[in-house]
Design brief:
- Four copies of one chain form a homotetramer.
- By secondary structure, chain A is α/β, with parallel strands linked by helices.
- In chain A, 33% of the residues lie in helices and 30% in strands.
- Chains in contact: A-B, A-C, A-D, B-C, B-D, C-D.
- At the C-D interface, strand 7, strand 8, strand 9, strand 10 and strand 11 of C face strand 7, strand 8, strand 9, strand 10 and strand 11 of D.
- Strand 16 (277-279) of chain B pairs antiparallel with strand 16 of chain C.
């Protein structure tokens, strides 16, 4: 039995409790939050779970063998390190930490302690993203030309991170999971429309070898919610629309045919082709349930998570490069 | 009566003939195209219009007082200059020319000859864009924070220009018309997935003074057609979706409220607000009809067009900067 | 404190527990279900709530002052009558009962016992439907011409009721709430595509005085989920799309203008008019939460619910007439 | 060469001229309309086509071998009979005539004269409907359970026919083309919200043998335009949305599985199943072009059109029955 203590009962914490409690092999026994109103709400919904305002009451509790961290990003490193050092397995919200240096230290400590360190890159556990990876791996798309994502809405402004750290994390974790290659350079632009200096709109281009490009548009100030990614390949293309109630993933038998140009030497002849569209059936299990199941399995079988420390580190490394590029108004930053 | 000779009867030319002929005060008398199949089609549809393969038969025809140019971009400068020099008024497809230097020369010649030089920035003449400008001018949106546009589809690859020159032109002309300020710098990224070197996907950020940012995503290799722009203001926001059969422009009474943060000195408190949405009725006149009407009025009344040489020059200037930035993988280029 | 015993922990029961427990002034203390798997799940999620397989353990428990009934329709009457007779307030799922005769007896018993009898016509408590009623009451729509609803999906086939009893109930309760008048006659058609004789697709027309007509299309065998109603008035029209994540209610300033026809005596001249569209902000509180709150208020203040026995009876009366008409392949049945 | 005279240059007439002139083997030589403004417009667009206000100038012109009739419904019979009697082939707009008796007489006359009589059931010639027929014919859908269509918008009120005659014609012609069986009875309801007595909203149910049902909702007073049909089969289902710019036809591998019910003798166990969705590529040729091509082929090869007199008669027969049922507020009318 994985006995879990949860740090942070704000926006995401209740989802963790609900999913751990609905999964065989795990139970949340204690929850910590500095806000006593939240603890009252916890007691009302889950009379059997103990609330506390002291994180050490969880980190040092020998009855717990795992700690889930759903607190502000700036606290991830400190709390995760203390939990790992105390011998707990750790599930930490995205992004893994505020800096790549912190993330590297967390990876070392988890390895040293032989404990599971899983980052909550939730989207990797959705039926949609797993189907997309399956499609890419099958070679059905051909050569990958681009990944383009739009993730905008009228959002909760965060106090400690900008929109890249909040939203682009999702796409970076998806990219890292789906594409076989790693990006080699970054260019980012963005704007902070309010004093405080945290960007509320940002654009991020990732350059890959082999003519592949990825782009993300994240925005906390959009009048509508959009969650839409395009994945263009030489043979087929995918549109992934997470707002769609069903048919989230559509595979288009469309593309361009490249031929030799009879009229000239220096230019190619490109013609486009449209064909059928196909929306495969997706597993509709809640992603967080699959993730929690995976965390329990990793703990029980001493396995490395799909979204472990290395995956968390990758995301933070790109975010750091993006922040640097954004200050230089798009100037390339090599990875 | 404005008597028009048309150069180029490919994709767009037939629309020009149809609209000129449906508008009082103008008539297309001659059409030139090197492709005799197209001329046969012209004869079949418009028995009264003369076809020719020789542009000079139009440029030097004293019975014509205007020339419409719907040929490849690389030929715009030469044809327009010859037509202006011959004393014709000129309507030229977008972009006005391949380079800013060419555009400047065309502007000079038109001024020298006292002739109308109108660039076919079609979208400026749509009911949707005119309503957006009206809304911005009214101050209803408050301070403008950003403009974000997506213009992608599985497109006709052009032989002589890349996707920026083909598609971003539309957004640049809209931006130039709608926003009161001019951008000061550009960062662009993109990719040419096929040999030949012309980008088929591109991202373009424009930096403005006063914390405003504009971004365009153009792509010839997308499985779906998207034509959607967001315009974010401090008071209200607009979504402009040109694919929508009606309700192309939606105005959202949404935004963020900025207050002083009681808990800290250095950060502001931002909370979001959602309210009603309103889709104003739009003029549904075909944009090209309005443009043709405007061209005739400018010719008859010796007026300067809304989309004249200067507007055409602005667009090409930004495109040149974008191409330079794209080569530098996003490096800032000042305007 | 309203102390609730719940009968039935199948599809809807868990939502009732969650909402009662999240509302001040009420608590679910006991839940009855014949299925012990469901009771195990209950214990896992809500350790503090007692489970039982015996309805009498709830109906006769003096510690409970209210009973919520979420069991198959055929059992509503018996369970509700026993609970009312035992002095409990009753919240019963829709439809109130299998027949109008049963519903009438339940109303009498509730009045006799001076107990609250509330039917869970959930949609009446949504922000969308309340906004529609507000709009109709304001006179903004003018004269109401029609109500048209489509409520289809690939659905759970019920064992004891057909698609009318399952889905049309929602529209009938909305109609009853929104429109000032009552229908005077019914015509219905439908089909049972499987042996068993319960219709899986049905169409229901309600005739009103004053040229108003209402129509419902319900279908358990549709490949897509549609929840869309149109409400046409002489001045404005409403589209209510419950699938839309936001903007569920759109008010169109569209309609027809009726004038005298100069060209003839016997016919009128009707021309249409399109104008702005407006999507008002809606209260997004979960409907069941509002309903539970209303139930508690009615119990505490001895008030008559918005969706009480009479409203439940109306719905069942129309359903009975519709079944009769459906057997006659559309033959009119007066109400 | 099929030489065509067109009667009626209102809403649809210009489309006929454009398509005949764009098709090899036919040419419109004369157009008749009582409205001289329309004839002026004709002359402006097609200088080579002769205009007249006298139908006999077309019907009796020996240079013409075909007459296209795009006039009000009430005039179809008289004009078509005169044209057939004069030995012309006839293309007549939908519906073929105002009554089944008229349609029968037209069929007889066409047979007697050995002339082609084609009714412009345009939708039958769309790529979408032809793909649907192909799918039904292949048996892929299994047993057909229902056809359900919604065809509503804020429409042009007609002076001489109601909404059934205007819009339901489309669905009846599609049904007749797609389904192998004919309906045996009709139930219809509707409402005339304006004096004049012509229904502006109507609902029509068609009963088939073998538990198949079809339903149409037509409405001239809807705030939005909807053109959507569902076709439910035992194995697969189709959604046909004509508003969709692409992907008009979607085939769902969804349905219900029927098994024996272990818990009871008298009821069956039905469970639903959702699977992939597939949107086949469609021929995007303009339907009217395909129809005109077919008309020319029938004339040249003495063939019977896909949408000939019999198909036109079927539609009018159902419409007559529907009108009778509508007067009886849904009362069944056998066909």
């Amino acid at each position: 039995m994985v006995t879990v203590g949860l740090l942070g009962y704000g926006y995401w914490g209740p989802n963790l409790v609900r999913n751990f409690n609905a999964t065989d092999g795990a139970r949340v026994l204690k929850v910590c939050d500095p806000n006593t109103d939240r603890l009252r709400k916890l007691a009302q919904t889950y009379p059997g779970v103990e609330g506390t305002t002291d994180p050490d009451a969880i980190i040092n509790d020998p009855a717990l063998n795992a700690v889930a961290i759903a607190t502000p990003v700036s606290t991830h490193y400190d709390l995760a390190m203390r939990a790992l050092t105390a011998g707990k397995h750790v599930l930490v919200e995205k992004p893994i930490a505020a800096t790549a240096a912190e993330a590297s230290r967390m990876i070392e400590e988890a390895e040293h302690q032989k404990r599971v360190l899983l980052v909550d890159h939730t989207f990797v556990y959705t039926g949609a993203v797993r189907k997309i990876k399956e499609t890419v791996d099958s070679g059905m798309l051909g050569e990958i030309y681009y990944y383009d994502s739009v993730r905008v809405n009228l959002g909760l402004f965060q106090n400690d991170v900008d929109v890249l750290y909040d939203l682009a994390v999702h796409d970076l974790s998806i990219l890292n999971y789906v594409l076989p290659n790693k990006p080699c350079a970054v260019s980012a632009t963005g704007m902070a429309n309010f004093s405080g200096g945290l960007a509320n709109v940002a654009y991020l281009t990732l350059f890959y070898e082999n003519r592949c490009i990825a782009h993300m548009h994240v925005n906390w100030l959009a009048p509508v919610k959009v969650r839409r990614a395009l994945l263009g390949g030489s043979k087929k293309m995918i549109m992934y629309d997470d707002i769609e109630p069903s048919e989230k993933v559509k595979i288009y038998d469309s593309g361009v045919d490249v031929g030799s140009d009879p009229e000239g030497m220096y230019k190619i002849k490109v013609s486009y082709r449209t064909g059928d569209m196909w929306a495969p059936k997706l597993d509709t299990t809640e992603a967080l349930h699959t993730l929690v199941r995976h965390f329990i399995d990793c703990v029980e079988n001493h396995e490395t998570p799909i979204t472990g420390g290395q995956e968390g580190l990758f995301v933070v490394r790109v975010l750091e490069a993006a922040m640097k590029s954004m200050k230089g108004r798009g100037a390339t930053v090599e990875l």
